Give the backbone structure.
Amino acid sequence: MPDFSVACWSVLLVLLFSVNAQARPPALVELLVNAPLTAPHVEFDPHTKAWLATDPLINVAIWSGALPPLHMGFEQDQFEGVTADYLNVVREATGLRMKIWRYATRAKAREALEQGQVDMVALHDVSEGQDGAITQSRPYLLNRKVIVRHIGETQLPSADLSGQRLAYVGDDTVGALLHKQYPNATLIQYSNHLNSLTSLVYDQADALWTDAITAEFLIRLLFSNDVYISGDALSTSADINFAVSDRQPQLLAAINSALDAISPADMMRITTRWGLSNNFVVEQPPLNLDAEQTAWLAAHRKVKVLVAGSYAPLTFFDDQDRLQGLGADLLKIVSQRTGLEFEIIGGNSLPYMIKQLEEGQAELIAAVSIGDLRLSPEQYTRPYLISPFVAVSRSGGQIKGLEDLKGKRLAVATGNPLSQWLARYHPEIIQIPVPTAVRGIELLSDGDVDASVHTRFGADYFIKHHFQQDLKIAAVIGPTPARVSMAVSADDLPLKSIINKVLLGIPPEELKTLSDRWRNHAAPAVSSSWNTYKDDVYKVVGVAIAFVLAFLVWNYYLQIQIKKRRSAELALSDQLAFSKTLIDGSPIALYVRDKAGRLAHCNRAYLEFLQTTPEEVIGKTLLDAGVISPQLSRQYQKIYQDTQHHGEPTFADLEIDVKGRQHRIYHWTLPYQSSAGEFSGVIGGWLDISEREQLMEQLQQALEAADEANDSKSIFLASMSHEIRTPISALIGLIEMLRVRGGTAQQIDENLTVAHQSAQSLLSLIGDILDLSKIEAGAMQPSPRPTQLGEQLRSIHKLFQVNAHNKGLRFDLLLKARDQQVIIDTLMLDQIVANLISNAIKFTQQGFVELSLKQLPNDAATGFGSYLIEVRDSGCGLNEQQKKAIFEPFVQVAPAATISGRSTGLGLSICTRVATLIDARLSVDSQPGKGSCFQLRFTAERSALAPALATIAAPTQTGRSLKILVVEDHAPNRLLLCQQIEYLGHRAVACDNGETALAEWKQAQPPFDLTITDCNMPHMDGYELTRQMRESEQSRALGAHPVFGLTAHAQSHIIQDCLDAGMTQCLFKPLGIEALTQHIGNVSAQVERRERASRVKGSELQKLKALAPEAYASLVNEFITTNGADGARLEQLRLDNEFEKMVSLAHKIKGGAQMAHAVEMVDACVALEASATLRDAAACDQQVKRILSAMQVLEEELLASL
């Protein structure tokens, strides 16, 4: 169907059909094709072929009146519809030139054909017949005359429609024909099909006589929930063809040949395009009833059908007590195909309907789930609906499956085949029997059960229309879905076979259309059958009416009794309610005391504040009640007396202690007088301002902390400015001197040494900031490894000996640990100890520095050891304030002028946090002038493995020479990196921007082995360059080549940004030659292994051996073990004749054999699969022995390859 919405169709059709056909001269129109098809190849007879060679011009007639979808009539100057699409196929297949003329009416078009003004009429049906001047082509659409009725009707009309109002569209000729066929019907003529169908919807007609194509098209489009095709008319033939002038026999032959050449598939494409079923292309086959079925139909023209009135959407009665639902539609189809008349009998429940069926009160049940044990299997027809069973629960519930229903109530309709399955496999679920599934939904909605069993079809229907916000489908349950069918009585089994033949004849798309219509149809109210509950309703209504009458009489009597008192009581109640709300509901403590200070009244806030009850305080003074101290009681008593004496209110902030808890309150009192003008007491109250005072104090503290933080920030910025500018200034100055003056080799060497030291100082500062950022972000995690503590401390001692010697300090190392081999993060331990020793040497002007390792007492059986590393010095020492602040960031113990080096104050803060990461504790013991002792205590697991000490080799080329793409916008850095790469023996190709680099990378032959790119560049940065490289590799099915990101930013999130962009690794500037050697060496090794593996011939195992020799041995051992287990299991399966399992196991063994390139084993597995499939035991024996022998040979070969 053309892709228009229903609303657009409606508007267009209304506009179209509102135009009356008027007499007008013929007009030339355009052929508009909606379903273009490739013209079929046609073999014409010689006479027709000769005639076509003359290139004749064919005039085709149509008329103004629309007949959708054959002729849509949207535009007056266009011919559009199914007929237009067929005419286009004929035109393309024959090559004829055609002109299409529009006439005012069908009669005018036919008259023009008879008079020779046109050669053919495009739209014609066989019922119009042919005379001497007109011949008909073969039909291109199957059609028939039908009767359409309102969807609420369940009975077929009488054959002659006696007493019925019959609507039709057509001229007086059609009316005369219908009068002969239906003499007792009242005929109503309409000018268009839309109005005629609307007359049925609004009860202006009882039936409509029309053709099946137009009826199906308009019903599906506009009236699917209102009308239906009830059956065929008396004269049914109406196949659609072309009318051809008898003067054009060659034209008729050409048209017939073209129509014969159109394949059924192309015909279905045209009908499907216009929303028509395939029944109009392929004729529906007859039922082909046998003798028994024919005899049964002859003896049973009327069948009693039992239907459940509340089984929506399968069967239910609407508000006019008419049968509706999918089952009702299928009964109508069965009636149309068989001629049976159905008498509908309502049933309250499934047990009742089954009982009626068994007693012979009916022959058929319209809808029942297959599986009810009270019916034998041969009584069920084939299912017309298959839908899974589901558990419906409330939307707010936590039920997601049957496991969540343990101990809960589940409503199950009586006779549901799922009931026994639930009782067997889920006995812990409490089943609540209900007469129908709809009743279960009602109980669930009312909260009487926790879930209800229903079909997915029915559950979707009710949830969508009634409980969209309240209920949901929780889970699909049951081993098999619900299969809904009809059921016949045991004495009427031929009826079952008849219905089965009708159901088989319904096209799947038509059955789907029916089910979709009722899935989306407006739902009836969810309630049980009126016949079931009407007696109870009458009783309840009667009792309710009697109760209401009695209540009204009694209420009238009470009204008379209280009328005189109501006004006074109402005024008093208002006053009391106001007073109670004002006093008792106030969050401020309020009280009233008499002249003597006794408490007359208080509110709830007063009692809650003093943590007392009214019985303890009402009628007592504060001193008598004892809720506060006697001293405070006398103080408050004096305030009351002063207030009455002076007659003035008092206000004060006071302190009060209530049961050991101190409060600060804002207290006030004011005197009140009696009607005589004498002071009768005081009214007082207070507001607890303790929390406000605490908040003010906290606010002040926060302000002070913010000021301190701001000062710290200023100090840090000043320090960072100084620390960064100092080495940079030295670098710039030295480089400038070298550039301007040059110098001797010794001077140049000295200047480069100082420049290198300044650069290392700046790099150390950036590293400290980065470490602190990593720790705060949680990105630094320990990596424990076997460590020899003594060797590690000796290495650190040797590293700092030169620094200590240059300052004239004695640097001692003491090792007193028995178990020195432990598992710990070596790098983090080195970082802590090295920082402590560096600080000790820095802050010690003379004397010594000592590094010691001690083993603390511990239970050896635990496998862990406790250790203490101490760094002692004879430096300036720390006072108490410095010891508290020394481990905070950016804290320096002394001005920079007093020490030999500079410090940012980050080192010890980082050490403290790193120590926490490895479960260690760092502390300090120091006194001013007596030096310091930093202690690192930790517990580590002892290890029997001695760690391999890493050595840094001189930068040399590793592996093969690589082709490396360098992308850097900063020229000095780009030059330096290229020189480093070339120094390592590799070839560098430099680019200064991302766009150039991407083009160079795509065109490179051979391709680059590695890309090193700066992350931040103008235009296309390194992140975007990497993303585009990865997209290009993916589109060309290439493997991802290594990409290293290079950045100078010292933030912890930079690494993640690089990985997210697709980079292999993130490197930080400046990049030393040692680090560059390591990273490029890893890439070179990977490239070399891939090349070596690609040269290996043979099995996948041999390639793996070349690619990863360290993993080959373990894989071979696993392969041999698995083969041994599979072989043993294969022998057992053969002894047990488990053929299906042998097929599966042989397939598994074959996969491993293919990987090992074991041809003999693969062939044996294939043969075993075939033999086991045929269940040939002897052949299986032979192949199993063959497989086991091949396994032995393969095992020996693999062991020999190790």
User: Anything to note?
Assistant: The longest strand covers residues 471-488.
